[in-house]
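Morning. Coffee machine broken again, so started the prediction first thing and wrote up yesterday's gels while waiting. Chain of 479 residues, entered below exactly as on the submission form.
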Amino acid sequence: MSRLFASVRARATLAATLVAAVALVAAGTAVLLSLRSNLLGEAGTQAERSARDVATSLAVGTPYTELNLDDDDRPVQVVGEAGRLVAASEDLERVTGTGVDAVKPQPSATADDTDDGSSDDGGSDDDDDSGESLEAGEIGEPTTVGDGTATVDGDTEDYRFVAVPVETRRGDQLTVYAGAPLSAEHGAVNTALTVMLIGFPLLLAVVAWVTWLVTRRALRPVEGIRREMAAITASEDLARRVPVPGTHDEVARLATTTNQTLAALESSVERQRRFVADASHELRSPIASLRTQLEVAAAHPELLDLDGAVEDTVRLQRLAADLLLLARLDAGERPADARVDLAALAREAAEGRTGVSVRGDAEVNVAGSRGQLGRVLANLLDNAQRHARSAVEVTVRRDGEAAVVAVADDGEGVPAADRERIFERFVRLDAARSRDDGGAGLGLAIARDVALRHGGTLTVHDAPAGGALFELRLPGDRA
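Came back before lunch.
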């Protein structure tokens, strides 16, 4: 069992750790993507600001040679018509990502320059992509070109480039490319990733450790229940009970249910012990009487009480049959699913009995065992005749979907305090229910057990004539 608990704790710890790992990976990915997006957006804003500053200077007519292009070591290109580079940062040595690879300005336009510039697909594409018709001195909307690299004064870094179109007062259509370094973005993302790679395993270790401790604490009452159950099994003392924790949770309910099961088992075992003891006592009397008569007959044949011997044998046979039927009922034997007419069965049971009358519906059908139901009616009639002064009346009727058989006598009745006790096994209420007159006290117990097995009830009330009224109620047959 301890290995089972260890397995439960291990599975719970593993599950909690896996859930935490998935959540951390998802959250970490979202954080990294959000951080990178924000930093790229910030870099694009910086690049746009630089490009707008240069575009503003061009729009007001500042000559190319007087442009401030070396601010913060950010690469800047000013591209004219046909992709001709007219201005660039002084320390720009190499650039990719803008579509214009030239780094040295060509301020004078010649035929050769034009031809060479027109062969550059990037510049012409930018002019086409801008798609704007600008007036003299007007600045167009910025466009994010993308990411690339640039070498400025010997240092190569990644940049985000933004293009801003502008038309000078002289009517020259230019495009300003400016880049902002991505080193901050790379550094922040790498730092965050490093922190996650170090912190996440530590956090998962903490989650696993806490889950292991919490699970062990939660399962500690279960271990107490297991130990007590093992002690009960070893001692066979069903009076003991497992401890119920005061947590009011599933474990507490498990302990409560276990104690209820132990109580039911103790009651069942005690009832079985009483049954065996009572059965042994009841069997001892007819067996002893029969043995005595046989021993006397063996010594003095002329003194043989043949009628008494037969009576004791019949009583012993009936008692054995009752005990066998109770054993089958206790074992859960299911009754047959035959169609039984209770009215006809009642008339058969009453046939030949003095002072017994049957009235009621002509046909009242139920589903069950004809033999067991006949035994119920016979036991009820035996009990009624034993206590009746003169008459016993059997009524068979329908009550909605139920079938009802009522057996009433005109005797003294059953006190209200004893109306459940009389259905217990081997119970006799008074001297009238002696062994000679009333048998072993199993008839009513058998009748109620059979009624319950058939999904019905057997109760006792006051009869109209002042005696006892036993009412058998069974589910009617709908067929």
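The chain has three domains: 39-187, 250-330, 338-475. Going to sketch it on the whiteboard this afternoon.
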